Amino acid sequence: MPPADRIVRWAGVAVGLCALAYGLAAALPAYWVFLAMSAVISGVLLQSLGVVAGQAGMVSLCQMAFAAIGAWTTAQLNVWGVPGGLYLWAPLAGLAAVPFGLLIGLPALRLRGVHLAIVTLGFAATVDVVMAANSFPGVSQGLVVGRPAGLSSDRQFFLFCCGVFALVAVALAMVRRTRLGASWRALRESERATAAAGTGVPGAKLSAFAVSAFVAGVSGALLAGQLAMVVSRNFDPGQSLVAYAVAVMAGAHHAEGALLGGALGVLVAELLRRLGVPQQWANVVFAVGAVQAMTQGSGISDGLRAALRKRLPRRAAPHAPALLDEPGEDVAAERTTAPAPGAAALRVRGVSVRYGQVVAVDAVDLEVPAGAVHGLVGPNGAGKSSLVDAISGFLPAGGGTVEVAGAEVTRLPVHRRARAGLRRTFQQDRVPAGLSVREYLRFAARRSLSDAEIAGGLSGLVAVTPGEPIAGLDVGTRRLLEVAGALLARPAVAVLDEPAAGLGHAESERLGAWLREVPARHGTSVLLIEHDLDLVRAACSRVTVLDFGRVIAEGPPAEVFAEAGVLRAYLGEEVTA
To answer: pTM here?
Structure first.
């Protein structure tokens, strides 16, 4: 859908939702207006979880602590009589929570899964203890949080909460379309692939926690405005667990999922109250729903969107759904990180990798000339993966140097090496399923790409349309899409790790012919790691053979593969002439 049409569509949706909110505020009894207000405020909180958990894929069990900090800030601003009321206090409350979001994000740089869950829940418990020991500002004096003019009634405040929810949803939708939003979704899929695409993983994680804390702080300000006087039990750490379960179940990374989750939280609790069932059973319901969502890999909002896409008419794709087209089509040459005169695209000198007492890579020298496709082969366990990880920065080298386009990058982290002109792909599928083809290629290329540039980068390699969601592509197509993303970044050298895995013989032949043309068509040298020796013969002008971490042969493929030492390494036996 063109951007103008999308804007018109979402503007219509926003107008319709505003009209619905206004109608509900006018028609519902006061009690149900209060419940609807609670649902919307919960929806704002769930949107904060949609960032850190739904998009970035990190566990956060301290959202109520961020909300408590926002509510405390609001109460303090009220005591101080800061002008502007909740119109100003709500964003200030969000900003007050950001430093704590960055603080709790620091452990996420090292911890994942249950370990990160324990740390965040511990932070929530700590904030609860501090808040309980020190009452909220104004409570001891009986000073309530006042609402400014225009928000005095619950119906007016309900509309204000709806407006805040909409603003947060629009802002997060806009961020989702930026490189920052793409980095969060890439982070969820693979930290290694995110770094290899030139994005700093620490920055992506900390930004997700900071934005999440801001939104949660705003929800705390709204809750303070709703209740007029808040206390520590309004932010019990256990509620963070419930919020996380609801966010997973509803799919809070989408605005409609967050709103649905907030509504379910209120309606289930109200239903249980009317049935005389203890409120704790609501937690069981949400836990079961979260487990179901994690089993299926999607929340309620994801299912609703998938069903809607099936019902909407699909636009015809401009290409047949073949995996590979014939090579040789004209593609506009792109500038790359050009090596200095006489410099190689990649030069490795004396690089070693050790695992304890085991030497996986032993002082390897390797050079990929500018404008060449160079092969790196060897039997299983030869040390190819360890060498590639050391070259790209994922493993510390026990010695030696790595140069890219004449500049030494040995001490640079992974994402800085990628920006310096060294890109790589992986053996396993690490392409973020939450992005479209267009979004992924722009993220991988680290620049804006027109659909014509995208089509040129994909031409001869894989037939997909820019707007196609990656989640619907098969693994082989995703692997080739990763190759296209690495080349569209215009690096000095692209390290392609078994790109033909999962392809048939005929497709591998066509891929080999396509790779042979990459330096001329894209201005990028290639280091190809492959087990398919026919593909290596078709694509590479020279090849290096590793065995037990050492280089045992180097030269043109026809000569190297005829050497007795190479045959012995592959066949495991003496070869006689």
So the answer is: 0.87
Q: For the chain, what is the radius of gyration of the CA atoms?
A: 28
What residue type is assigned to position 572 of the chain?
A: G
CB 493 within 8 A of CB 422: yes
What residues are paired with 555 via a beta bridge?
543
Question: For 189-236, how does the pLDDT look when each residue is reduced to its tens digit (9 = 90+)?
Answer: 889 999 999 999 999 999 999 999 999 999 999 999 999 889 888 898
> By the 8 A CB rule, do 414 and 394 touch?
yes
Q: Name the phi and psi angles at 146, rounded to 5.
A: -80, 150
Helix, strand, coil shares, percent, the chain, to 5: 60, 10, 30
365 token code pair: 């020298």
CA 514/CA 549 separation, integer angstroms: 30
Among 225, 253, 220, 222, CA closest to 239? 220
Instruction: Kindly state the helix (H) or strand (E) to which residue 469 belongs, with its residue range.
Output: none
Edge-to-edge, what's the strand order for the sheet holding 493-497? 422-424, 493-497, 525-529, 373-377, 542-547, 550-555
DSSP result, 229-287: S--GGGG-HHHHHHHHHHHHHHTTTSHHHHHHHHHHHHHHHHHHHHHT--THHHHHHHH
In this structure, the number of other CB atoms found within 10 A of the CB of residue 281 comes to: 13
Q: Which sign, positive or negative, has the C-alpha torsion 123, 252, 36, 23? A: positive
- Which tokens go with 158? 């309900």
The residue with tokens 């215009």 is 490
Q: 10 Å Cβ neighbour count for 397? A: 23
Q: Is 223 exposed, middle or buried (0-12, 13-18, 19+ CB in 10 A)?
A: buried
Distance (Å, whole) CA 111 – CA 103: 14
Structure tokens at 537: 């013969």
- H-helix or E-strand spanning residue 311: helix 300-311
Extract the tokens encoding 395: 């493993």
**CA-CA distances (angstroms) from residue 123 to 74, 148, 522?**
21, 33, 50
Angle between helix 179-189 and 154-176 (nearest 10): 80
**Contact predicate 382/360, CB 8 Å:** no
Amino acid at 82: V
Tens digits of per-residue pLDDT, 108-147?
988 888 899 999 999 999 998 998 888 899 888 888 898 8
CB-based burial, 162-176: b 16+ in 10 Å, e otherwise: bebbbebbeebeebb
Provide the token pair at 573.
């036996």
Burial annotation 450-470 (CB, 10 A radius, 16+ → b, else e): eeebbbbbbbbbbbbbbeebb
Phi, psi of 20 (to 5 degrees): -65, -45
